[in-house]
Write a structure and sequence with these properties.
Layout: E1 11-17, E2 20-27, E3 34-38, H1 52-55, E4 60-64, H2 84-97, E5 103-107, H3 111-121, E6 126-132, H4 146-153, H5 157-168, H6 170-178, H7 189-199, H8 204-232, E7 236-241, H9 249-253, H10 255-258, E8 262-267, H11 274-292
Parallel strand pairs: 3-4, 3-5, 5-6, 6-7, 7-8
Antiparallel strand pairs: 1-2, 2-4
Length: 294
Amino acid sequence: MPNSVEVPLTAVRRVEADGVTVFYREAGPADAPVVLLLHGFPTSSFQYRELIPRLADKYQVIAPDLPGFGFTEVPERRQYKYSFDALAQTMLAFTDALHLKRYALYVFDYGAPTGFRMAMARPERVMAIVSQNGNAYEDGLGDAWAPIRKYWSDPSAANREEVRKAAVSFEGIKFQYLQGVKNPEAVGPEAYWLDYALVNRPGNTEIQLDLFLDYANNVKLYPKFQEYFRTSKPPLLAIWGKNDPFFIPPGAEAFKRDNPNATVQFLDTGHFALETHVEEVALAMRELLGKSVG
């Protein structure tokens, strides 16, 4: 018989943190260095299904679902106010609940302003950062933000509806997965179908539209994020789908302005780089983590 291939198993777990039942995926040795994966809109920890086992032989890999996404449950009595400040606070409470004292951060899309807030609050915990299309510079905001910028300047019902059509609809979510991808047949449809189903649960679309409005506060915080990079200088890899219409390549290059320990790598793909280039991302991560985490 052929030798079996050892693939680390991923467990699904839940923990109470900040009055929220946080759903998360976990794999790898309990005593290994921790890699914390923070997802973006409109997805969940499901986006890391292929990356987790490619890291978990050497690292304890933990991927939570943010409140409002995936399978994390926010009870009505919690009266949760959805904002990026709140998401970061819940994720800090999540790391406390799991007793995570040190970790490397992988941030993508919404995970970036969430994770960068966490890093500013507790810089001593962050050993390294991987930013995959996770923006912190106005240079990185592409033209696809036009309807959202209009919503920021005038949060009227009409502009809110335009954002709903552009971002929360099935076609809008599918666009995020396929735009800029050289071979769309390489992207399995289950990812965007699952995102669409979970984002459009009763009441959840309004949460998403509230977060789109609050994203303007992330842009206001960009100078603070940049100050953190200058002060803490974490080992940082900006690995970027260069055809992303939302977060464009200048946003990746900009990290080097403030952080001498930043490196940049571009991939010939779109926003969801892991759907097409998970091997390349995993190899680049292992190189960074090997130098900075062990």
